[in-house]
Design a protein that fits this description.
Blueprint lengths: L3 H15 L6 H17 L4 H15 L2 H4 L4 H16 L15 E6 L6 H14 L4 E5 L7 H12 L3 E2 L7 H14 L4 E5 L8 H14 L3 E7 L4 H14 L3 E5 L8 H10 L3 E5 L7 E3 L2 H8 L5 H11 L2 H12 L5 H13 L3 H7 L7 H5 L6 H12 L3 H5 L6 H11 L3 H30 L10
Parallel strand pairs: 1-4, 1-5, 2-3, 2-4, 5-6, 6-7
Antiparallel strand pairs: 7-8
Amino acid sequence: MIFEGLAEKLQNTFQKLKGKGKLNEADVDQAMRDVRVALLEADVNFKVVKDFIKKVKERAVGQEVLQSLTPGQHVIKIVNDELTELLGGTQSKINISSKPPTVIMLVGLQGAGKTTTAGKLANLLRKQGRRPLLVAGDVYRPAAIKQLQVLGDQLSIPVYTLGDKTNPVDIAKGAMEHARSYNNDIVIIDTAGRLHINEELMEELQNVKNAVHPHEILFVMDATTGQDAVNIAQSFHERLGIDGVIITKLDGDTRGGGALSVKAVTGKPIKFAGMGEKLDALEPFHPDRIASRILGMGDVLSLIEKAQSTLDSDKAMELQRKIRTQEYSLQDFLDQMEQIKKMGSLDQILGMIPGLGKMKQLKDLKGAVDEKEMVHMKAIIQSMTPKERNDPKIIKDSRKKRIAKGSGTKVSEVNRLLKQFEETRKMMKQFSGMEKNLKKGGGFKLPFFK
């Protein structure tokens, strides 16, 4: 789960407040001390933490909160509001020019993921009906041009290049003419990076900027490098004037210091977040949804959007019928794991479901969606007879040995699969019951049940 370390500490702090009937200033002070320590340990900028705590405390010690029937919830709401504001307040979108093409220039240090992000961004914008052109402007890093071409081939998106012997300014100018000739309405320029900021790099980027006048200069920032990345972002902003940030590897950032600091330090919003290695794992950044996930409130909207774009609705309806009629089989279990895998890591999905992230049944399933585990699971299930798949209770010792031998696995792996299946079946029953209650109350339907 993103910001796992920070989220766990904050959620534990507020769990204590929820149990209190009334709050006094001492309770709020203690909670704010815990929040301050959690943020600092998460590598959030010291000045940002100081301002954040001050704002929360000013609101939290008001009479309206202290005299409320649910003061703990009020404090959590205040923290949620301020956390949302710290992350940018509202979603910030790409500035699309009324006169195409819109030029987007990606900048940042080497290793932050600019080239891969260029491909992901082009893929995302194409899904929105745009016609992107990728531009190979990094003529220094070995294989940078080839990497972008490979990405372009995988995505069926054109890549403009003049090779690694051409000046990046000439490449950018040529790309603009190419885009106009071939009716590309988005031009994404992948620029060179260095292992550290230097005058040569900045001068070159400034020259490219002056040549094509980009509508968006986006700083690509590795979330896992924390405060260092924020300081570098500020330096790029001072020299180039960035318009926003794309934060990569957010799914692997357990602390969150960089993401929580960059808007306050640079004044520029995070516009997109990389949530995995796949080429569709770039998402618009929603400050309110991220804040909600950090505080354990889930992110139902993102979950539904992700489910609608990846899950097979016919399969989901058939799965729902089977669960309700007790027909859920091992083959259904495998199909379900493959469907969930399309949505991303199970950790990410759990973080989007309010209150479910700590359920034991769900935690036991995390390993089941692992790439290697999926291969073993498939082999094990395919080594079973149709009768065994439909009724796993008949799988005793002799059958387990035969299945393990046929699948090239161990009996212990067969046992683990059967246990995971049982845990899933229990979990699905709970989901089914929850969905019925939500329907009665007019709430949303869980995306597993269309």
